[in-house]
């Protein structure tokens, strides 16, 4: 692949949504009529009064429709440096394994003796994560990073309740650029949230932490680096101070990719951490699909973990689920969590090996710093925390503030235009937006030098276009299946709809309003 | 037909290049002219107006609007009988409000903003083209072109509006090296909306809902028999309204047992009230500079704070406002070095119910 930006053209099928495509009486499969009265097999109280309003279609119609939808993806299938997401290739071998009956057809209530292979994967992967973090036990119930952060707030609550200190220790400290799930889950679990601001170096000062710590402190929840890419070199002193104040230190390892195999959370003084298996460990992600936030902690916190825990009986060599955990906080999700993602992460980790994981971290940091040189050479691009002089880790927050000042076109318009070149629009930033017109690309270890060059060249090209032909950029995308999305609709309760039924109801209401 | 009102303060910004801090008052303007200052405001206004082709305009006459419109190639109707001074600016704003314009786009600095909003209040939306020397107010766009583009959205009926604080500096103090912003009122301004990506992020987060909830929480927490000294600004107005009274936007009010005890109090009154009764001081953060004490709330003096005790100082501000502070710190200037030193350090600013942010206070 060359680094020259080329315009692409995507499919545009202009099809209605599938709910509007049915034709009465049309079927995918015609079943023989049952010999007995099938309805009588369902208790009267559980029978539907009306048949569900599903579109009546042939199998072929359905397949064709979804194939068409899969072609209308706004550059997602091109080069996607979607930052904070650590976009990785999902090896086909794992997909093939996931389709095998031993993964696809097991039931969560099967006896332990019938799923020994799967439990062995869970246990072995637990050991791998212990090795990478220094923690003593992992659980995989949490269905994502935020769920794992929530697990930590539950464990924190359980730990201090057992010590009789929960009434007093009701504060959790985090930073303004920690992932928003940290303050959110702390609040959900009933803690007060104390936020530290970033100072000149790109991370909060140790004095701010000292001022925030007290005998009310339950925990510190923090990323390092955060999405700015600046690694806080004082982190060991931080965890020491938290410990001295009697609190727990939680490492949100959402940004693990740049430090994999190079640091261990426990050795930095953390009591617990979480990894996102659906990003850092090569599992598929996106679309709100299944994910896993692997939560690990010290032996001191382990009794409070959600149950069951998969354990190995060293005498028999057999694996089982340990439900007999009286101090457990209970469950954060059903059963053992999304184990097919754990399986994929295990495959990834075994394929990479310890040295491979370290090398991947180094490549991710190298790729980001290579990209930074190219991006900062583009007029209109600024870097977050310009005073922070240290090298950035695996990603950096940038901003198109200067371009916006000059042309009136910001990161949303530029991102839209990038999709005309087959480039996925960049991830902007988590809140709060302390950098104007922010964007946060992340190359990771996956993308080739040619891919990174292409991405940077497309951005440079679009910045040029913003000056030479601003109207064209303002109205982009032009070669994509849909134009610009109305960004205000999701903020208007009268217009948003997450179900077909809600959409019908709200459309009818708006039509009536218009008629009146 | 929707019309746009245009007012240009032709002398705004003249003090900047020649090292004066502004052009408030005829004597300073004369000095600026003597130092060779050239008018800049009209040129910058024309840059903004160039973004508004096809819009119906009602402009102040001559250098106060019509000339900038002509320079931008924009036809306009012109007001009569407007003098070229601050009183003329106020007359023009009044006439435009009466004519029912959709927006008053004015070119100037804080002084001009005060003149325009002092007349129209929040009855007519306003937007500032930044051409002055001092621009503390949140009524200005970031550049002339940005002002023009935002005004175009208003004229197309696409903008939302929010309340913004009108600030001004004391120019004489500024020439003596003191930054002294003061709140002068509230204006209605179009909001520069940042459209977020759908999907990974939720809706745009603003401070509004959090501050509204916090105001109610604070009102609910207030103990009986305790004085609550409430500072100035829009954030504190939320607290005052949550207690149950409007209070004084630009003054310090005192509440007791859920009622307004004294409005717009002086330092002497505060000293007398707090002599025998326990009190809590609740303050907002002013403008972009992050001033906590000593700017527009001098009533809450070092003596008052000493009597009340630092432990009884509560600060309230939106998380987004704090995140926008650069550098991330608050300032105090009570005029009492010992008190300023005592206040220096970190304080937990309340940003929402059960949420606070640790901010450094610098003297």
TrEMBL record, chain A:
It is an enzyme of class 1 (oxidoreductase). GO terms for biological process: glycine decarboxylation via glycine cleavage system. Pfam families: Aminotran_5 (PF00266), GcvP2_C (PF21478). Its EC number is 1.4.4.2. Residues 360-467 form the Glycine dehydrogenase C-terminal domain. PANTHER family: GLYCINE DEHYDROGENASE (DECARBOXYLATING), MITOCHONDRIAL, GLYCINE DEHYDROGENASE, DECARBOXYLATING. The glycine cleavage system catalyzes the degradation of glycine. The P protein binds the alpha-amino group of glycine through its pyridoxal phosphate cofactor; CO(2) is released and the remaining methylamine moiety is then transferred to the lipoamide cofactor of the H protein. This is glycine dehydrogenase (aminomethyl-transferring). The lineage of its organism: Bacteria, Pseudomonadati, Pseudomonadota, Alphaproteobacteria, Acetobacterales.
TrEMBL record, chain B:
One of its GO terms (molecular function) is NAD+ kinase activity. It holds the Pfam family NAD_kinase_C. Keywords: Kinase, Transferase. GO terms for biological process: NADP+ biosynthetic process. Signal peptide: none annotated. It comes from the Bacteria. PANTHER family: ACETOIN CATABOLISM PROTEIN X, ATP-NAD KINASE-RELATED. This is Predicted polyphosphate-or ATP-dependent NAD kinase.
């Amino acid at each position: 692949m060359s680094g020259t930006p080329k315009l692409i053209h995507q499919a545009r099928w202009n099809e209605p949504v599938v709910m509007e495509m049915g034709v009465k009486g049309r079927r995918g499969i015609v079943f023989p009529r049952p010999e007995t009265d099938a309805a009588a097999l369902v208790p009267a109280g559980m029978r539907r009064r009306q048949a569900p309003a599903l579109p009546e279609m042939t199998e072929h119609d359905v397949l064709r429709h979804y194939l068409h939808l899969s072609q209308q993806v706004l550059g997602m299938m091109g080069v996607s440096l979607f930052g904070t997401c650590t976009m990785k290739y999902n090896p086909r071998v794992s997909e093939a394994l996931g389709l095998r009956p031993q993964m696809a057809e097991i039931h969560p209530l099967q006896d332990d003796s019938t799923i020994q292979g799967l439990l062995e994967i869970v246990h072995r992967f637990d050991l791998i994560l212990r090795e990478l973090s220094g923690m003593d036990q992992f659980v995989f119930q949490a269905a994502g990073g935020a769920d794992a952060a929530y697990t930590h707030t539950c464990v924190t609550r359980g730990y201090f309740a057992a010590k009789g200190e929960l009434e007093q220790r009701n504060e959790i400290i985090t930073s303004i650029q920690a992932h928003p799930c940290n303050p959110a889950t702390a609040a959900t679990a009933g803690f007060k949230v104390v936020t530290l601001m970033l100072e000149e170096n790109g991370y909060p000062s140790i004095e701010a932490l000292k001022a925030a710590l007290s005998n009310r402190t339950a925990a510190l929840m923090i990323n390092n680096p955060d999405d700015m890419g600046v690694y806080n070199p004082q982190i060991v002193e931080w965890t020491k101070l938290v410990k001295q104040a009697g609190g727990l230190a939680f490492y949100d390892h959402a940004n693990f990719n740049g430090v994999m195999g190079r640091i261990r959370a426990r050795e930095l003084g953390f009591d617990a951490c979480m990894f996102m298996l659906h990003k850092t460990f090569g599992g598929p992600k996106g679309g709100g699909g299944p994910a896993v936030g692997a939560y690990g902690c010290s032996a001191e916190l382990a009794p409070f973990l959600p149950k069951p825990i998969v354990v190995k009986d060293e005498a028999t060599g057999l694996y089982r689920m340990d439900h007999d955990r009286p101090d457990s906080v209970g469950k954060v999700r059903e059963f053992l969590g999304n184990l097919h993602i754990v399986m994929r992460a295990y495959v990834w980790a075994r394929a990479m090996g310890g040295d491979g994981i370290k090398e991947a971290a180094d490549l991710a940091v190298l790729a980001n710093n290579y990209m930074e040189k190219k991006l900062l050479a583009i007029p209109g691009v600024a870097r977050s925390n310009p005073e922070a002089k240290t090298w950035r880790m695996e990603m950096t927050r940038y901003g198109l503030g200067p371009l916006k000042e000059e042309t009136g076109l910001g990161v949303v318009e530029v991102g839209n235009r990038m999709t005309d070149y087959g480039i996925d629009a960049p991830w902007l930033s988590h809140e709060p937006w302390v950098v104007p017109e922010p964007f946060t690309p992340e190359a990771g270890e996956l993308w080739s030098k040619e891919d990174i060059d292409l991405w940077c060249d497309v951005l440079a090209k679009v910045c040029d276009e913003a000056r030479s032909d601003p109207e064209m950029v303002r109205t982009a995308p032009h070669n994509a299946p849909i134009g610009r999305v109305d960004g205000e609709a999701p903020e208007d309760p009268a217009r948003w709809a997450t179900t077909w039924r809600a959409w019908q109801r709200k459309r009818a209401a708006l039509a009536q309003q218009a008629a009146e | 037909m929707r019309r746009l009102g245009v007012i240009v303060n032709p002398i705004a910004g003249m003090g900047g290049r020649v090292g004066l801090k502004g052009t408030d008052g005829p004597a300073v303007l004369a000095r600026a002219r003597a130092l060779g200052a050239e008018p800049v405001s009209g040129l910058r206004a024309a840059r903004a107006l160039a973004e508004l082709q096809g819009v119906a305009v009602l402009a102040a006459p001559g250098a106060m609007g019509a000339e900038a419109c002509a320079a931008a190639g924009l036809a306009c109707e012109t007001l009569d009988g407007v003098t070229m001074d601050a009183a003329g600016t106020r007359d023009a704003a009044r006439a435009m409000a009466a004519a029912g314009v959709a927006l008053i786009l004015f070119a100037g600095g804080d002084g001009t903003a005060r003149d325009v909003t002092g007349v129209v209040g929040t009855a007519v939306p306003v937007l500032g083209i930044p051409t002055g020397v001092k621009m503390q107010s949140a009524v200005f766009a970031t550049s002339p072109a940005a002002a023009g583009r935002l005004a175009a959205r208003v004229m197309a009926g696409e903008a939302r509006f929010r309340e913004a604080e009108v600030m001004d500096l004391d120019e004489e103090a500024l020439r003596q090296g003191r930054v002294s912003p003061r709140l002068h009122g509230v204006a209605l301004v179009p909001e520069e909306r940042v459209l977020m990506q759908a999907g990974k992020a939720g809706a745009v987060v603003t401070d509004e809902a959090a501050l509204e909830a916090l105001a109610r929480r604070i009102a609910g927490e207030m103990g009986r028999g305790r004085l609550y000294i409430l500072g100035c600004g829009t954030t504190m107005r939320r607290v005052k309204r949550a207690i149950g009274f409007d209070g004084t936007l630009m003054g310090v009010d005192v509440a007791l047992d859920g009622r307004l005890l004294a409005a717009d109090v002086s330092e002497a009154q505060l000293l007398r009230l707090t002599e025998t009764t326990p009190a809590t001081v609740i303050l907002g953060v002013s403008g972009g500079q992050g001033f906590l004490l000593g700017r527009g709330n001098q009533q809450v003096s070092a003596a008052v704070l000493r009597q009340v005790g630092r432990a009884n100082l509560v600060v309230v501000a939106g998380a987004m406002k704090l995140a926008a502070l650069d550098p991330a710190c608050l300032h105090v200037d009570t005029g009492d070095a010992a008190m300023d030193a005592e206040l220096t350090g970190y304080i937990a600013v309340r940003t929402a119910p059960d949420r606070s942010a640790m901010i450094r206070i610098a003297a």
